[in-house]
Amino acid sequence: MTDAAPAASPAAPATSDEVAIEIRRMNKWYGQFHVLRDIDLTVMRGERIVICGPSGSGKSTLIRCINRLEEHQTGTIIVDGTELNSSLRNIDKVRSEVGMVFQHFNLFPHLTVLENCTLAPIWVRKIPRREAEETAMHFLRKVRIPEQADKYPGQLSGGQQQRVAIARSLCMRPRIMLFDEPTSALDPEMIKEVLDTMIELAEEGMTMLVVTHEMGFAQAVANRVIFMDQGQIVEQNEPGEFFRNPRSERTKLFLSQIL
Ligand code: ADP
Ligand code: MG
């Protein structure tokens, strides 16, 4: 938790009547360990959801199941109308519609910023190189680092690397963006620049699921906050109510520790 609370409030509507993600009675185990328990979650197009909860509660596992970096065992996950299951043939299609930004950026260190942004569009989406480069520059301008295009990730600050990671995701033209603690590895002075980039995305109506403990971001941007503990969704509410009137004791305890 930092005081890098963004001031802006997105103009985008809270919800639409189109379902982006539908999760029903979903369970996942790692071996014997029951990591996600009866998860029910419907995300409408344009929603901005913040997921919080103690370390080990299953937040990363949940969002990794949504782009099938992890497989669930029971229940259903439907993303943009496609059910994620073992007979799914076109996993690349789902992955290109669902962008993911990680805590540790996960850029390719031996590729330039521009090459990081064009790799998947060229090889997965089969977009011509020139066009992929134009798109990459468009999104690098959007995250305000076009001048870094020819540098390598190691030459950039953490905040710049994370903005490259966001631009790289956007180059695949995703309809949904997942963020897993995108600012947790950043020095405090770099947190705001990454949050500001995410706020702009929200204002443009991107459907976003964000695992974060940046409660200022949650207050300003989320239309719904979800609290997870021990593999379950314990409580969810719009941010005002969530912070003012947490219902469960577990949520109260968690908030008392981070706020
Ligand atoms: P969070 O993101 O909320 O901290 P995670 O989803 O990373 O939680 O982890 C939830 C639980 O699952 C933790 O107890 C963690 O140790 C365990 N876990 C995570 N990944 C694996 C894995 N690949 N194999 C076995 N256990 C795992
Ligand atoms: Mg995690």
UniProtKB/TrEMBL annotation:
SMART domains documented for this protein: AAA
Species of provenance: Rubellimicrobium thermophilum DSM 16684
InterPro entries membership: AAA+_ATPase, ABC_ATPase_HisP-typ, ABC_transporter-like_ATP-bd, ABC_transporter-like_CS, MetN_ABC_transporter-like, P-loop_NTPase
ABC transporter domain ranges (all copies): 21-255
Entry superkingdom: Bacteria
Any GO MF annotation of the entry: ATP hydrolysis activity
Coiled coil, from the record: none
Name of this chain's protein: ABC transporter ATP-binding protein
Enzyme nomenclature, EC number: 3.6.3.-
Entry keyword set: ATP-binding, Hydrolase, Nucleotide-binding, Transport
UniProt family annotation: Belongs to the ABC transporter superfamily.
